[in-house]
Structure prediction request, 134 residues.
Amino acid sequence: RYLKEFRTEQCSLFLQHKCSQHRPFTCFHWHFLNQRRRRPLRRRDGTFNYSPDIYCSKYDEATGLCPDGDECPYLHRTTGDTERKYHLRYYKTGTCIHETDARGHCVKNGLHCAFAHGPLDLRPPVCDISSSLR
Prediction:
């Protein structure tokens, strides 16, 4: 669910000034454009729709806008670097250095931590096929 949906849709409650997860920002959806992330997709040819490693030089971090829009082949430096952390290449592929609380949530990153908390939480990275051909 996180890889597909986390921060890809705008929070309808925030638009109505009713989101209780705005401060601190723990909402599953985005409130401002610079928090929005694009869904990482692996194309039929094995390549990603955007790079998990090369940042876009045209992306405006303040506004969340890129002249190339969703078709941009580069990583957008969104608030919290969510496009990178929740990319197929990186999500839950490394172990978090922080402990979990009684509910099993990360004490630093909360419910939405992009790092693994234990061996069962780890997943193998999905690599772009072109990077394995080098």
